[in-house]
Design brief:
Length: about 250
């Protein structure tokens, strides 16, 4: 029976991805900073383990406890909105520490077993904001675009070892807590130079009409990335993300 390890399973995409694989009879290792037993259905095929992807010791402990896996899904991350001019450097570093370096650290931790076995899949979940320039998410977008870049190189590096690497790029998902979490990390939105732009952008973020991404879209895209070798490197997830990927 195949095993998938998913980061960031306390809410949003991570929960839905874990459910999707459980429904298809996979062994699932769902990780989160503070493990909870009320976010996923009980199953003998489910393990919920603690993980802080910004902590090297936490990652090493996870590797030892998790054992061999077949698919790694790097889903954990967070968002923050701010004009580039007014983004605190501490926030910029936190975005890169989690979204970029955390994903890289997890990849480096599990890749050796895939390479030595000659099989395995790594799926990095980034964002469709990397496909189209948008205001007020420049640093967040940069942290995700960096993952896109190293993932593309990694895919070429490990293909000869029988290891597949894929990117899933979700669009805007009002149904998840991601937007709410991002809105608690806003900086400079009330500055007189950016206030009108910020009001417009925040209204669009909260608007649930028009093309959006649902957690089920992301789960299905991750499933295809994990199980279908014919999938392309970049897989947009959600109607809006598909439109952006096609130049819309």
């Amino acid at each position: 029976m195949n095993t998938v390890l998913i980061t960031g399973c306390s809410s949003g995409f991570g929960v839905e991805i874990a459910r999707y694989f459980l429904d298809r009879d996979w062994q699932v290792i769902a990780t989160m900073r503070t493990p909870r037993d009320d976010v996923l259905p009980r199953s003998e095929r489910l393990r919920v383990l603690p993980l802080d992807i910004t902590d090297a010791q936490s990652i090493q402990q996870l590797v030892e406890v998790a054992g061999p896996i077949d698919v790694l899904v790097n889903n954990a991350g967070f968002g923050a909105g701010s004009p580039v001019e007014l983004t605190p450097m501490a926030t910029a570093r936190e975005l890169f520490e989690t979204n970029t370096f955390g994903t890289l650290a997890m990849t480096q931790a599990f890749l050796p077993q895939f390479r030595q076995r000659g099989a395995g899949v790594i799926v990095n979940v980034t964002s469709s904001v990397t496909l189209k320039a948008l205001p007020l998410v420049g640093i967040y977008s940069a942290s995700k675009a960096a993952v896109n870049a190293f993932t593309a190189s990694l895919a070429a590096e490990v293909e000869p070892f029988g290891v597949r690497v894929r990117l899933v790029l979700p669009g805007r998902a009002p149904e998840t807590r991601f937007g709410d979490n991002a809105s608690t990390r806003l900086h400079g939105m009330d500055h007189e130079a950016y206030a009108d732009l910020a009001a417009s952008v925040l209204a669009r973020m909260r608007d649930e009409s028009g093309p959006v991404t649902y957690s089920s879209d992301v789960a299905e895209a991750v499933w295809r990335a994990a199980t279908d070798p014919s999938t392309p490197l970049r897989i947009p997830a959600g109607e809006d993300a598909v439109a952006w990927a096609n130049g819309g």
